Amino acid sequence: MATLREIRRRISGIRNTQKITKAMKMVAAAKLRRAQDSIVAARPYARSIGALMRHLVAKMDASAHPLFQAREVKRVLVVVVTADRGLCGAFNTNIIKTTLEHIRRNHATNAGTADNVRLMTVGKKATDFFGKREYPIVAKHPGIFSTLNTGHARTFVQEIIAGYLAGEFDRVDVIYNEFKNVIQQRVIVEQFLPILPEEIKKGTDLRSLSLVDYIYEPSSAEIVEALVPKHLHFQMWRMLLESNASEQGARMTAMGNATENAKELLRALTLSYNKARQAGITKELLEITSGAEALKKAG
């Protein structure tokens, strides 16, 4: 049985840990509020420009822009977006597991290898994990979320477009966490390039679709040329904002659970400490009583 000193030491250590987890929860809550406001503000524009781009692709010839052209997929770039730090539950683990499963199911060869897959890692956790394994990484971007800004999204997109146009890869997928609420995040695998046309569900009556044929001025080609980079930059920015908000929500939940677990553990240890202390006092009383009885008999 643990001694009183050992139990007191454990209680002290858990109390200190509880203070840290409670403080981390408060910090994550403050960051989450700002991150949530940012993603809520960004989503309507992202949806609108995305719908406009898909509409344009559906109306135009795919050869009008190289980023519209679907070609034979020989090499794939997978952009993996994780956090820079841990202590956020299964946030990073879910992304990494989904990435490995996505590569195995969709891009592995008959021999089980993934020689046709290239990775771009965003966040320190993805960089550390895949950097220690036999996956070719074309670009590493750790430590960006402490100073997250639109310049990061622009840099990523420029690297992706340059590689795609150079033929280094024929398709680009992005894997990230979509923010649902404080306690729920959803891992998303989204095709980034080539840009897909507006999806028409099978069996849909085409006459019921409101695909308006707009008149473009000066021309649809010039508008597309100017709109494509903006669309890709903002979609990447939205994904980074989604991941950032999800990370703060996951960390807030994880630290809240850790604080509650520490409280339960303190309650159990306090009970054990009181029982041990009571047992010690009882033992001392018995020893005193036994000693007094022995003195009486001796006298």
Tell me briefly what this model is.
By secondary structure, the chain is α/β, with parallel strands linked by helices.
What's the count of strands? 5
Q: How many separate domains make up the residues? A: 1
- CATH domain class name: Alpha Beta
Which strand order do you get reading across the main beta sheet? 3-2-1-4-5
Q: Extract low-pLDDT stretches.
A: 200-209
Overall mean pLDDT score? 87
Largest sheet data: 5 strands, mixed
**Termini gap:** 38 Å
How much strand? 5-15%
Structure overview:
- With 299 residues, the protein is an alpha/beta fold.
- The chain has one domain: ATP synthase, F1 complex, gamma subunit (Pyruvate Kinase, Chain: A, domain 1).
- 59% of the residues lie in helices and 13% in strands.
- It is built from five helices and five strands.
- The chain has a five-stranded mixed beta sheet, sandwiched between helices.
- A hairpin with a 2-residue loop joins β4 and β5.
- It starts with a helix and ends with a helix.
- The relative contact order is 0.18.
- Residues 200-209 have low confidence and may be disordered.
Fold topology:
Blueprint: H1 4-59, E1 76-81, H2 91-107, E2 117-122, H3 124-131, E3 137-141, H4 150-165, E4 171-181, E5 184-193, H5 220-298
Helix pairs in contact: 1-5, 4-5
List the defining traits of the structure above.
299 residues; alpha/beta; Pyruvate Kinase, Chain: A, domain 1; five-stranded mixed β-sheet; elongated
